[in-house]
Every structure is written in structure tokens, then in C-alpha cells.
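Side project, low priority. Logging it here so it doesn't get lost.
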Amino acid sequence: MPTVSLVSTKNDPKDHFECTIDKDQTLYDGLAKNGHLLPHGCLAGSCGSCKVEILAGAENLKSPGVIEKDTIKSILETCGTSPTYPIRLACRARVTGDVTLRVFECL
């Protein structure tokens, strides 16, 4: 089972959350099943509320579909910033291996 590590946006070690989730499960569903809810809205990939930065293991997520790509493009245009790490939507990103992430906040 893949391990998902959620790092605090403040890099506070005590705010670190880690769990195992089922392969092919979305990041959002896997974390929620283990008691950690990410920010969310529609859970369909349209609102962008569940946006996360993939700090490690981006290759361990299935490729984003059209809906996710369009929403991420819109988020990045609105933010006016280029993220250091890849951005994904937790409600759409399906896990195939270990991943480390944090909630993405526009600066």
C-alpha cells in the first residue's frame, strides 16, 4: 500500500500526517479515510479547493485528466505565481506509490 505524507505549510514537524492508502485511491479519499480532511468544495475537480503541491513522488500519481489540467491552469493563472513543485487536485489525483504533499496556497 502506498504511503502518503502530508507536510504542514508551515513546515512544522508536529503537523506532519502520514498514512497508507489503497493503490488507485484519490489522495483526498485516502486521507479522509484515515481521518484527515483536506480543504474541499466540489470534490469533482472543478473548484480547485483541494489543490496540493507534490513535494515528492509526482511520478507515483496517475496522469491528470482534462478536467484537472484545466482547473490547475486556471488556478495558476489566478495566483500569478509559478509553484516550485507540481500542483495536483487531491480529489482527482490517484496514487500508485508513495507521495509527499502539502496544501498549496497562492502567495
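Brief comment: The chain has a mean pLDDT of 92.
Revisit when time allows.
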